[in-house]
Amino acid sequence: MTAVVERSYDVVIVGSGAGGGTVAQALAPLVRGGRRVLVLEQGPRFDDEEFTGPELDMAGALYADGGGFLTAQGTMTLAFAHAYGGSTLVYTGTSLTAPEHVIRGWGVPGLEHADLLRRSQRYLTENNVHLLPAEEINDNNRLFVEGGARAGYRVEQFPVNVKGCRGSSLCNLGCPNQAKQGTNRVQLPRAEREGVDVVTRAEVLRIDPDRSVAVRVSEKPAGGKGRPGEWTPGDYRVSTRIVVCAGGAIGTTSLLQRSPLALPRAVGERFTCHPALILVAEHARPITNDVGHPKSYFVDRAAEQRFVLETCMYFPFTTAKALSGFGPDHSRVMRAFPRLQMILVLACDAATPGNRISVDDAGRPVVHYRFTRETVSGLVEGARASARIFFAAGAVRLHAPFADPPLLEARDADLVNERITARHFTEGKVAVSAAHLMGGCAMGHGARDSVTDSWGRVHGLPWLRVADASLFPDSLEINPYVTIMALADRAAEAVRADAPALLS
Amino acid sequence: MSVLAAVQPSFRAIAATVVPEAGTLDAGGWAELEGIVEQALAPRPPRLQRQLVTLIRVIEWLPLLRYGRRFTRLDPRRRARVLETLQNSPLLLLRRGFWGLRTLALMGYYARPAAAASIGYRADPRGWAVRR
Fold it and tell me: What share of chain B is helix, strand, coil (3-state, %, to 5)?
């Protein structure tokens, strides 16, 4: 049996995505002051040339369970990445700031929208966030704008954080041109240049009450993508003074749950995820869809109807899985790929008792999720709105998972409300997936109903911090990475402020 | 170790019902499809692998009750009816099981580069540079 290797750091950051990468950069000044800061990332570090595009190769390398992590009910898949840069490797770079009404609705004492906005603006600048020029917009997005306007919806353009985007359309499989300005391109390299250590392929098994973390560094699998870990494979015990958990909603929450710590009872609660559906429609002629930035526009109906529509473009298997049914009708839609327009419908779900994260006997995360009537209603209304936009954009045929049969012809455009109904939402038959995983370590008043304060300090354990989407006490109703960075920036500020006492 | 070997004829009949074009694959095409599915199943727990094999066996023998023939002996129309029964089952367990099997068949077929090309999918890391 190999001995556990002992290491010592002043601060350990678990995770390197939007939360962990931000904290790593923000705590780099501690290194100049002689402190040692370590980032532990479960996934590997990829070289630029390893982002090659094939769907299964990249999904298998980047995502937990290849992107098919199932809820306990087996009715929804959750997508989150394990890699240097976390899920910032696989988002589309859409950069929105938190809506004021959402932050007010969260009611977290000490958390002000103006403060989050100020911090967000800094990262929007740092990550080169801007609107793409018209000449870089493909037909799939342009048709959404035109159809949305004709159907009476307010269509807005996504600011995106790209630099040198070549329009591969492969954002969700890791940009092959290194255009997305995720933490793997911006914050982590800066932190490393300033002396922060980053160790990849390093899974944190638990956090112990003596402020040490148990870490297992794994070998690079034969033939797999990514570099070997920076430490020799094996088990480590890292003694530290401050632990910042930033492994994402599922990673952070499950880590705390398998750690023998006196934690607030609310750990695991308030999980939300913006359950999403992919809708496709067929045009008479080919359109540019699998080239160009895939997600340039959106319609925000969160406040009124609890859904958001976003342009999207997915890959053959993902698209095939998203369509309901099988057989000749399914194949016919797939063969129309060069003529397909796609819209992603996201439901703005609300934190609900029972929708939570737990761990199984082996300490692996288990996500319990049931669709509430309101969430299904958001998906149905979003699907109806998408249908109106598709047909207004000139689509000849639409595939709607909530219709039976799922194919609607243009002549049925007036029957959208009758054909697309909640009656046809059958769990285990409709492909629902989610990539905006939130909650589990919610901020709030105190240990009775939350896990941390508004600065990410875990109630009762001042040396333990949270700095990722698990802090959200409810759905954000928009793409979350900018808000995660803003909250992580707050958490890092609190660590710096408390460092003299905690590190002495 | 192969998960599908014990139920290969049944799996192929199911896959060709889910994606009719799979029925035209040659031996090399089937090997590629099944290789993708095996690769997806390999890291999954043995219990899940056994459940999948059991489900495929159930699908093979279930039609005896209604049609007096096994799944692999049915015509395409009746095969589709059997799968539709599972897809629309009032039991979530059966719907989920079929959903998983359907997902594997779609993965095996559409993750092949030849299938992506055949439906006109042309995404390229070089993006606009190769399309304008």
Answer: 75, 0, 25
